[in-house]
Amino acid sequence: MGVFKVLEIKEGVFENNDRQADLLRKELKQRGLFLLNLMSSPGSGKTTTLVNTLNRLKEEMKIGVMEADIDSDVDAHTIAKQGCKVIQLHTGGMCHLDAEMTRQGLDGLESGELDLAILENVGNLVCPAEFDTGAVKNAMILSVPEGDDKPLKYPLMFSICDVLLINKIDVLEHFDFDLDAVRERATKLNPNLKVIPISARTGEGIDEWVRWLCQEVKQWQVEA
Amino acid sequence: MHELGVVMEVVKTVQRFAKENGVTQIDTIVLQIGELSSMIPRYVHECYPAAVDGTELDQTKLKIEIIPANALCKNCQQVFNIMKNRSICPECESPEWGLLSGREFTIKEIVAC
Questions:
Q1: Residue-level pLDDT at B1
Q2: Closest residue in A to B106 (Cα–Cα)
Q3: Where are the domains of chain A?
Q4: Cα torsion at B46, B51, B57, B62 (round to 10°)?
Q5: For residues B74 and A11, what is the distance between their CA atoms, to the nearest angstrom?
Q6: Backbone phi, then psi, for B78, in 5-degree steps?
Q7: Closest-CA residue in chain A for B103?
Q8: Residues of B in contact with A154 (CB under 8 A)
Q9: Cα A139 vs. chain centroid, distance in angstroms?
Q10: What is the complex's ipTM, to 2 decimals?
Q11: CB contact at 8 A, A96 and A127
């Protein structure tokens, strides 16, 4: 048996994943494929928002969806009914997706001809914020019943997102939810954050969200 | 649990390092965790056996060094711990400071052969 010695590593725990994510983003650029990472807590309306988004966009571009969950495939069935390509990714108990799992998902989606791939991340405001998936843009949904204090409690998630959808505004009057306070708290953490209030149920605000997404996809493809 | 997925990332990095450097046996892994990092050292310790189970790192020991959340006061240049002083300089009571350390989550080194 050899002699034990100290070997210095000095590597940040997220560095390897960050490298993989940057590599994936570079490849997506070459292919002109836009990857959106959609995050939120469980029950915020990710799937309903997604269904609404797909219905508006599916004539305009080819879209594929990756549903990441710890278990089950209920969301994938809902999405498949919209006539979009969808695959279910099981994280096997893990609370997030990393860049490598996202790459495998894109391979499984046979994403060759797609313009837009949407990753519906595991419902969680903590871990997905720490793992760069390689997405071009990060979007998050905060729903009214969750409360307006969430930017204070989960600052990292609000810091890494490009767009914040505030969902379920059709029930705003029934909750002590201060929309302006959320705006202020979130943009203090992230001055470039775009905030769009929506209701996935009534369709309010979806136009503005879809316009934003469409523009981002086109921009990415022009630069490709 | 939040820590488990992250500790599995540690395992992956150490495995890669071991392979690249011809390491055959690992005794201890040393992590540095800042006081402001989202990792709780106690939970990292608790989930470590699950993260290394069935890997080459099974049976290795885990050591965690805590890095203090230190800041430099912009007013009087005093260095102080922001956790212990509730983000206010204990010398001049200024709330204006620059963070020096505390956000780390790093694999510092391994004891191996």
A1: 57
A2: A12
A3: 16-145+205-223
A4: -30
A5: 30
A6: -70, 140
A7: A12
A8: none
A9: 5
A10: 0.85
A11: yes
Provide the number of structural domains found in chain B: 1
Q: Compute the distance between CA of residue A79 and CA of residue A198 in angstroms, rounded to an integer.
A: 20
Do A7 and B24 make contact, defined as CB atoms within 8 angstroms?
no
**Residues of chain B whose pLDDT is less than 70?**
1
Q: Which domain holds residue B96?
A: 2-112
List, for residues A81-137, the tens digit of each pLDDT value: 888 899 998 887 778 889 999 999 999 998 888 999 999 999 889 889 989 999 999
Whether A9 and B4 lie within 8 Å, measured CB to CB: no
Q: Which of A5, A11, A14 sits opposite B113 (nearest CB)?
A: A5
Closest CB to B23 among A7, A126, A156? A7
pLDDT digits (tens, 9 = 90+) for A154-213: 999 999 999 999 999 999 999 999 999 999 999 999 999 999 999 999 999 999 999 999
Q: Supply angle C-alpha A67, A72, A76, rounded to 5.
A: 35
- Domain at B97, CATH number: 3.30.2320.80
Q: How many CB pairs under 8 A join A and B?
A: 80
Shortest alpha-carbon distance between residue A106 and chain B (Å): 21
Cross-chain Cβ contact B13/A9 below 8 Å: yes
CA distance A22 to A202: 37
Whole-angstrom distance, CA of residue A224 vs CA of residue B12:
32
Rounded to whole angstroms, what are the CA distances from A78 to A28, A67, A121? 27, 10, 16
Kindly indicate whether the domain formed by A16-145+205-223 is annotated with CATH number 3.30.930.10.
no
SS3 state of residue A96: coil
Decide if B59 touches A, using CB distance below 8 A.
Answer: no
Q: Which residues of B touch A2 (CB under 8 A)?
A: 24-25, 113
pLDDT of residue A179: 97
The predicted pLDDT at position A1 comes to: 60
- Joined together, the tokens standing for residue B13 give 């990095």
